[in-house]
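User: Could you check the structure of this?
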Amino acid sequence: MSKTQITAFSPRLMLAYDAREHCEVLAGMIDKSGLTIERVARLIGKNPTTLARELNPTDEGAKLGFTDEVKITAVCGLFDSRDYAEFHLGRCAFVLPKVEGEFANVMQAVGEATKEYGEFMTALANSVDPDSENGVGISPAEARTALDELKDVENQLALARAFLTGIVAQGRKGGRAD
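Assistant: Sure, the predicted structure tokens are below.
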């Protein structure tokens, strides 16, 4: 399928997605993990020369399968390539936390985290300078703080999602997560 055909049904994906860049991100994960391409290839059951060719963004004849990408992600313990794909699909993925505790306690923690985040964002919105360059704005430091606060809420919501998904998957009433 050509880029033009994909753009017809998924314009958000194809506006900035670049398969070559995706290969570079994946190869960079191997580098970041401290592993060699030879070691990763052996761990995923692939010939090192073949893997090197498949990760070469200028080799248009070689293609890396998504199964191998997932294996590389697992071996490296990094999610850069998944994040790259998710971003270009307009999604955000993150590692689900281990579910522990009672339902009421988990939901209480979620409620507190979201309430704190709401209060923080309200205060931040009220402090925005209307005379800034774009009429409104926040500083990079404020944005970093907001991202830190958001991460806590995301983790709490992910915990709630994992807890509730576990109850649905088990097909029984949930009380304590094991």
